Protein 1
Amino acid sequence: MTLIDLANPTKFLSLTARALPWLAGATAILLLIGFYQAAMAPDDYQQGATAKIMFVHVPNAWLAMFVWGVMSIAALGTLVWRHPLADVAAKAATPIGAAFTFLALVTGSLWGRPMWGTYWEWDARMTSVLILFLMYLSLMALWRAVDDPSRAARAAAVLTLVGALNLPIIKFSVDWWNTLHQPAAVLRLGGTSLDKAFLIPLLVMAVGFSLLFVTLHLAAMRNEILRRRVRSLQMMQASQQAA
Amino acid sequence: MTSLAALIRRDIKIALRVGGGALIGVLFFLTVTVLMPFAIGPDLALLTRLGPAILWLGALLASLLTLDRLFTADHEDGSLDLILMGRTPLELACAAKALAHWIAAGVPLIAATPVLGLLLNLDAEATSAVALTLLVGTPALTFTGMIGAALAVTLHRGGLLLAVLVLPLSIPVLIFGVAASQAAITGPMSFGTPFSILCALSLVSLVVGPFAAAASLRHGLD
Amino acid sequence: MSSLGPHASFIVTSYAVVAAIVLALIGWITVDYRRQKERLRELEASGVTRRSGRQATDIR
């Protein structure tokens, strides 16, 4: 089974059908372990039990950026290597990435209220994640605006790559803007390295959420392939009826 | 090279002649800037503090409004297909159109800034700072906006989608434009740093914009 | 589980929102899968066939 076989949608579907139950099971186990560990974690000396929000906030924030990276690679696959499944991967990943970004924003906001006293603060992190969320939404709008999936794919690929260029600029520029206008309110959890009691649950949750993304992504790709089959069959039916 | 010059001259003529493209942008800029004091109230000190931000927002929205015309008029009468089929590289043609658009629509905005600065109770130094940052920043707005315009040209309901696509990409330019203006006015921070980053953003957009727009046009019009 | 401190509602709400959105994602993907299979089955029943001649709902 070489990588080139994955380019065939039918082979991909059969592989996914076999892998999905295992992936789903592993995800569930890891997330349950992570949740248990998060619940058992000690209170932070500064934040108390509120530090537990970190265990859901950080993995989502990390995934929000990671998914855009995956979509960028898929975009290169569409534009440069013309990989047949690249645009399916890109389209399937977008709403999932948007959901993780939304969760990062909401959990961050709920963490901010008890810690900073406000639900929202125009600080570097929150603003750049908000802009990332806007970019996800605009990408989803673009996918829906074109009927033909393969034409939409090329337009979306260009926008994804331009957005990938924009992400470091946004992160950098917002850091800069923050320095000019407001002092940053940085949360510190015991210095540069997290204590093991916090680090391990965080890593377990991070891996669990990553597996969750892989599972959801493969399932969404499967749905997208089936959706395109429906579309081509509908078009064949329409032309048969017209004939 | 003469074909590019001809393209630029043609675009400028059309933008100025139809009376829509160039001057509607300035009118919209004026409207937005006038609406702000009504919304904020007559507190002059507050207006002075918000002045650069209001001017930059107005310029951003005004250039967004006129971006729609960058490709749609040509698409409708078929000249876009001719440009695509021509011997000039599409990237250069896109850059030429963006340059023409900036000359016809962006420069009037900059020219209008001193007048509007008066409305917002900005002194001469503040106004010239804002005008300078607009001069350097509006090319970035035009060239990145061109990417959205190229993506939206082949879509039927393209207009609103264009705004949705372009706004996240324009936010860094807005941030640094206002930062540079504020630095020049209140100035604990040096003016040079945000200003040079603004220049850098414009220069990067001069390259990325035409390439991305050309790629979008090629793939979208197939 | 020991007490969650004075800000317990925020902690619980965060985890609840995460659970809700994740479950909503899983739900949407599952429903979408069933809907596509249903549509494929209907199309097959009305006599349209794929170029390869294979079953449209065949994912093996």
Note: The CA atoms of residues 105 and 126 of chain A lie 7 Å apart.
Protein 2
Amino acid sequence: MELNGADIVVRCLAEEGVEHVFGYPGGAVLYIYDAIFKQDKFKHILVRHEQAAVHAADAYSRSSDKVGVALVTSGPGVTNAVTGIATAYMDSIPLVIISGQVPSHAIGEDAFQECDTVGITRPCVKHNFLVRDVKDLADTMRKAFYIARSGRPGPVLVDIPKDVTVAHCKYAPRRGDIRMRSYAPVVKGHQGQIKKAVQMLQAAERPMIYTGGGVILSNASAELRKLVEMTGAPCTNTLMGLGALPAGDRHFLGMPGMHGTYEANMAMQHCDVLLAIGARFDDRVIGNPRHFAQHPRKIVHIDIDPSSISKRVRVDVPIVGDVKDVLAELLAHYEAASAEPRPAAALAKWWEQIEQWRGKQCLKFAESDELIKPQFVVRKLWEVTGGDAFVTSDVGQHQMWAAQYYGFAEPRRWINSGGLGTMGVGLPYAMGVQMANPGAQVACITGEASIQMNIQELSTCKQYHLSPKVLCLNNRFLGMVRQWQQIDYGSRYSESYMDALPDFVKLVESYGHVGMRIDKPADVEPALREAFKLKDRLVFLDFITDQTENVWPMVKAGRGLTEMLLGSEDL
Amino acid sequence: MKHVISVLMENEPGALSRVVGLFSARGFNIETLTVAPTEDATLSRLTVVTVGSDEVIEQITKHLNRLIDVVKVVDLTEGAHIERELMLIKVRAVGKEREEMKRMADIFRGRIIDVTDKTYTIELTGVQEKIQAFIDALDRSAILETVRTGVSGIGRGERVLKL
């Protein structure tokens, strides 16, 4: 069957089971949009800015485990999308981004809306392609999906010149799997290494399990829960890994790192065997690597990406493979070998120590009748939603409070930009989550600064009847910047005050949504209940919060993981 | 320590820029880099000479392997191997210098491949140290121009880097 390039793009998307494409049209993609007009396999969601298209596709993927798809035009369409692509890349989210390009003959001539898309995106994609011939188009699209979702996932961009979308060639539906001689990710872990890890774990007196986004991406939450149960070891989930182990589980120590709990950080430092799973010893997680390495402990590291292993911290037992696969093997070996005597007394002593650390109650905060405490809002959200909502956040203090106080019970419920730390993701993330999970409760925890970085998406929400509840923790400051300035820069609040804020209630009402302004603690819960009753409306809750609140505990940048400030009294 | 890393990769447009981009983005060092298609026109062979601690070299090879276009990576320095670099050097050759220059080229087993009244152009092949030694042996003012290919390397014996 002869098809033009645009129709081939549409066919390939349908072939991959794509149901939603987030995008924005423009000159170079007009043939593709024409093909979209004539099909009914997937729905296109018209965003208001290309950055939001990629963020929405990203959250769509994070919350559903499907590959997210975004479609943008050449030049500014692509450059606007770059922040979204880099955000997904840092958190290993599988996306396929299709970008239009000027016609082949015009490439390199500084044509209208031309940019070197492959060059600009190269450092922030898993891979990218420039399609030069329509005959390669279907194959390239299939490779893009395969690369995006396999191995360590990531965004893949396919750049398609306009003439390729109108040229014709024979199209045949996909048959069989994609094979590439240069790309074959390792899935199965090395048996010998897995056995070594099991021996180490069984002999451990002070074991600790530390898991990251890899457990979520690999859908290995069930395996992790079983492992924790079987070993009786304490477990911490990073910002990217929250929900892998239910926050209510007694083995769960909270999040580690810069704003992690006292008990998680202490256990990370003082364990004798650390099992790291799908985590990458990020600077925000382990602090100063030299300080971290001071304490002698054996480290087992399971990761699908060999380059993540021994990057910042030397490990003793590296295991390269898919987390789910490796954990299943590890569990089988653990069970088979459990006749070995286990140092039960030592483990009990370790837990005693951990409970002592836990007794510090590092997340306790002073409640107030006068001022709304941001932590209080997050806790109330948890109560009102039964701990069962999808929660997206932007970046800053509110992000940390959401991570610390929501208490996620399931994976893929907590959607945030962990690696790149992109302000402005919250609202488009909520859109993507809701498209992938219609009927689910979706909350976006944001701040008055972050929300303004993609506030135009209120219009998209209106068009597609999206109804997330937006919780704006409005402290009239770039809160995290202010916190650092208070602690490290002599309270000189350079450019961190958010002056000239809009009246958010009026603003969202002008888009046809519901707005509420809440400035008393007693009104927080009733407002949340009312908002979630309005199931099919976007409700924007502008919480006027305590301006001086800081995120605790805190490990200052460059410091050791156990050099924690637990509150302002430690300053 | 100096390492010679050989990379077999898809002969695709942009593949080289992925390698170069990786080195600059992650702050790795490139001393020399050479690349050309192999006997199989769909594959390119790239040799990069880099300097770094064992940890850095481990990261370099891991990151090279992570590139989708890269088929195979070998650190030649890990085993017995042969390195060669080619230099073309244009030198001043006037009067009694002419004979002297020819003798120097002979000593280093270079070949004079172009001649004018005032200059010789010499082709010299060898390990980097030999080429450097030749340059050091000449009077600096006699050197008019040099161009070096960078190191190419291959494993010794029956060891091959192939698909």
Note: The two ends of chain B are 28 Å apart (CA to CA).
